[in-house]
Design goal:
The structure is a homodimer.
Chain A lengths: L2 E5 L2 E5 L4 H12 L4 E4 L10 H14 L12 H7 L2 E7 L5 H7 L5 E4 L17 H13 L4 E3 L10 H15 L5 E3 L5 H6 L6 E5 L2 H4 L2 H5 L16 H12 L5 E3 L8 H4 L14 H11 L6 H13 L7 E5 L3 E2 L15 E2 L2 E5 L1
Parallel strand pairs in A: 2-3, 3-4, 4-5, 5-6, 6-7, 7-8, 8-9
Antiparallel strand pairs in A: 1-10, 10-13, 11-12
């Protein structure tokens, strides 16, 4: 049976929510990933050191890790199960003193244009360089990466492509700021990677697999509805090439985004695809089908380690080419491929 | 109060379904329209004279008209309420003798590419001229118009534009055949009208109003999900210009397509927007807002009369600029603008 081992898989873009939903979904990521970049778009969004530290604590509790209190350290558990939540703040025009104070607690700052996706109402309403300069200069000086949800308010199929000049402007004016184009969905975004040395990108699993055809080409499929929306076949091809060829500026970020089933199947369905529990298995199947399994390690971990200078806790995930039937739901959440059989399974995590 | 009178409004593309659904929706069209072209995609589709005649009878019963039996003629009712179901057959490669036999019962033949929309599995799987020639030549000789759902199996946003060469080929090879591009959604289709004298088009209400943004740009809105899917802003602009300027080759066809609420809001929602009961009111509002109310008569009746040589029964519908709150549902069907207030109401039908 074909098998493949991944070392320290990282999910560089993850939504864990809070409360009961956090309890449901956090263990599904911590089981197979060494760590994940945690999005701050809670209600209200994470904008203070206290909120961030408290949220990290809740995440660690939900994953069964309580290693932030030294007296509770359990080394055996750490070896097996430790999961590092890499915390982000919700972008605002923060003063430098605040950023200095919070620096050691945060991994990055996530910027949302106002209202562009779930719980982003408090985001940035105009990309005014003079307004943003003090914060972005302080972030560059303190080496705090800027993660961006890059969409304009334009026509849904053009929103990401229209945002490219903003990425270009920011990358050019803040050459020492590390800027990550999150969950890119277009050929235009892939092409940006080679234009600016300080621009990087994450790509989700679902955008490697689907186009708008899968969402609205047959029946309407709410569980594949996400933001940014899946684009055209040529866009998916560009994303797939970048991932399969292990483009060194591209990292896996699932953007796994749980919503309760009733919110997804209601009239006016919420945006998000839930992939955390099946991401590594489906990535193995995808890379193997294209004869590129040897490049998956770069996509799911090494590139992120190089880009961000990370040293994740040791975790080794062995996957095998054995069919796995995806559960119809995890708690109230319906995963991608619910009830379908995928080709690879997780054999062992150590 | 502003008012506007329409004479003999015609809906040149309508789905009435069958059974209980037919009973629910037929009176909503017959109330305000003089007649409608009835689509044949029942299960099974309408492919014989007997089925077609029986279906017409069921429609007339559902609208309260039984004028096909002379002894039941009620002239007062005819004046007020008569509604002409213009019947279509589901395209197959019919022999000439069959078409001659059925000629007097049918208005047109509707062609679906196989599997392209609701109940179209038995449609045409390849546009082979040699296969189609005998039927299309007979249709041209017998002056039976060909109505086409023009989409390929390509990427959902390209399906209609990709179909244009097929329209061109058919229009060129069968210059005496009247061909109608049904429910067009793109600028490419509008441009085809000026290239071939025997090509015409219907346009729905919803494609004059919405783009893909309305379906999937914010939350996912299943009640606006239809086939062909709503396209880009520049496509809607082209459709709107053709309608507002009363392009003589363009006719109103609502493509009003009822589905029960549970089929629309389920995971895997069915395609179709239900507009029949509010179409004339919203068209008045739209044309008035653009200062083109004087062109609405051409769009909703005169063009179709000229193109097809129709003489509809007299019906006069007076609309006024008075707010109307659209019901949340008609039977099990949720209409467009459900629960919202539109600007115009029907004042009187006579």
């Amino acid at each position: 049976m074909k098998s493949h081992t991944l070392l320290m898989p990282l999910d560089m873009h993850l939504h864990l929510r809070d409360g009961v939903m956090l309890e449901t979904v956090a263990p599904l990521s911590s089981y197979s990933f060494s760590g994940a970049v945690i999005m701050p778009n809670l209600v209200p969004p994470v904008t203070s050191k206290e909120e961030l530290v408290a949220y990290k604590e809740r995440i660690l509790n939900a994953t069964g890790n309580r290693v932030n209190h030294e007296d509770e350290l359990d080394f055996e558990m750490m070896d097996m199960d430790y999961f590092e939540p890499m915390m982000t703040l919700f972008y605002q025009h923060y003063p430098r003193e605040f950023l200095e104070d919070v620096r050691d607690e945060i991994f990055a700052i996530k910027l949302y244009p106002a209202g562009i996706t779930t719980n982003s109402e408090g985001g940035v309403s105009s990309f005014d360089l003079d307004m943003m300069r003090p914060t972005l200069e302080a972030m560059a000086a303190l080496e705090i990466p800027l993660l961006i949800h890059g969409e304009t308010e334009g026509f849904v199929m053009d929103r990401e492509a229209e945002f490219m000049p903003i990425y270009g402007m920011l990358a050019k004016h803040f050459p020492n700021l590390k800027i990550v184009m999150e969950h890119i969905t277009t050929k235009s975004a892939v092409e940006m990677l080679d234009k600016y040395p300080n621009l990087y990108a994450t790509i989700t699993l679902h955008h490697l697999l689907i186009t708008l055809d899968d969402v609205a080409g047959g029946m309407l499929r709410p569980h594949l509805f996400c933001k940014p929306i899946a684009k055209r076949p040529e866009d998916r091809e560009a994303l797939l090439s970048a991932a399969l060829d292990a483009h060194p500026k591209v990292m896996f970020g699932s953007d796994s985004a749980p919503h309760p089933k009733d919110k997804k199947e209601a009239c006016g369905c919420a945006a998000g695809v839930f992939t955390a529990p099946i991401a590594l298995q489906v990535l193995c199947e995808l890379f193997d089908r294209h004869g590129k399994l040897e490049n998956l390690q770069a996509f799911v971990s090494d590139n992120a380690q190089n880009i961000y200078g990370l040293c994740p806790e040791f975790k080794e995930v062995t996957l095998v080419e054995r069919p796995f039937t995806v559960p119809s739901h995890y708690g109230t959440v319906v995963p991608m491929f619910a009830g379908e059989t995928i080709g690879w399974s997780i054999e062992e995590v150590m």
